[in-house]
Amino acid sequence: MLKFISFGSGSSGNCYMLATPTDALLIDIGVGLRSLKKDFRDYGLSMSQVHHVLVTHDHADHIKSVGSFCNDYQVPVYTTAQVHDGINHNYCIQQKVVPALRHNIKKGVRVQIGDFFVTPFSVPHDSSDNVGYMIEAEGVVFCMITDAGYVTDEMKTYISKANYLVIEANHDEEMVQNGPYPQFLKDRILSQTGHLSNRSCGLALVENMTEQLRYVWLCHLSEENNHPELARKTVESLLRDYGIIVGVDVKMEVLKRTTPTGIYELV
């Protein structure tokens, strides 16, 4: 049985795990390694379970501990060549991934990584490169989309394939516009290489989800420009307008920014 856990989702740090009975991978390691070790102990997990790491992009809140974790535990890191290069040149990251552990993958090319079949795809963001992941294992299709300026046609295709979906609902547009951020930062967040709003997230679901979508997690909420209940209500209301009832047709939760979720079983 495939299992999923979020160890943190937001600008303070992002890290997610998928695990089969015999294998596990992490998607991004932007949380502190000490905190991650504690969370593993609290949930009866072992670092030795993790055999692979996927990285979405090279911003610090997604890669803070990638080098220290992977070098310490000799775990290979998979992402595009551009993301690897971005990690290597990110001055915020003290410990880089050693060359022997860097593995390049190409967007649109399905590859087997242990128990998982992984297909990376493009996600627009103001990083050196950014990828979403469709991950197939145990008869389940899991999709991760975070830090997206807008929803491309390619992203829509992967949303329509998902049984389980993690998708960004970063901000409420009015909160950004009326908030204290300087104009250049507001413009960045709202741009097509910025972040996905609650409304854009909801519309992406309305337009592309199928009956095979069982569970949605809203991720990467802004602390300053969003609230968990606002994100949930905005998306839920949009779905309801189109006859899709959360809790009946699909389950939905908001991932916590700085604390783990507990373990979900994906069946």
Describe the model.
The structure is a single chain. It contains 9 helices and 14 strands. The chain has 267 residues and is an alpha/beta fold. The strands form 2 sheets. A 7-stranded mixed beta sheet has the order 6-5-4-3-2-1-14. It has a 7-stranded mixed beta sheet with strand order 7-8-9-10-11-12-13, covered by helices on one side.
Compact summary:
The protein is an alpha/beta fold and 267 residues long. The protein has helices at residues 33-42, 60-63, 66-73, 81-88, 153-161, 173-178, 183-190, 198-208, 228-241, and strands at residues 2-8, 15-19, 24-29, 50-54, 77-79, 102-104, 111-113, 116-122, 131-137, 140-145, 164-168, 215-219, 251-254, 264-266. The protein has nine helices and 14 strands.
Features:
267 residues, alpha/beta, seven-stranded mixed β-sheet
Total helices: the number is 9
Helix content: 25-40%
What does the radius of gyration come to? 17 Å
Anisotropy-based shape: globular
Number of strands: 14
Strand content: 25-35%
Low-pLDDT stretches: none
Secondary-structure-based class equals alpha/beta
Oligomeric organization of the protein chains:
single chain
Mean pLDDT: 97
Specify the biggest β-sheet. 7 strands, mixed
Question: What is the chain-wise order of helices and strands?
Answer: EEEHEHHEHEEEEEHEHHHEHEE
- What distance lies between the first and last C-alpha atoms, to the nearest angstrom? 7 Å
Strand order of the largest sheet: 6-5-4-3-2-1-14
Layout of secondary structure:
Elements: E1 2-8, E2 15-19, E3 24-29, H1 33-42, E4 50-54, H2 60-63, H3 66-73, E5 77-79, H4 81-88, E6 102-104, E7 111-113, E8 116-122, E9 131-137, E10 140-145, H5 153-161, E11 164-168, H6 173-178, H7 183-190, H8 198-208, E12 215-219, H9 228-241, E13 251-254, E14 264-266
Parallel strand pairs: 3-4, 4-5, 5-6, 10-11, 11-12, 12-13
Antiparallel strand pairs: 1-2, 1-14, 2-3, 7-8, 8-9, 9-10
Helix pairs in contact: 5-8, 8-9
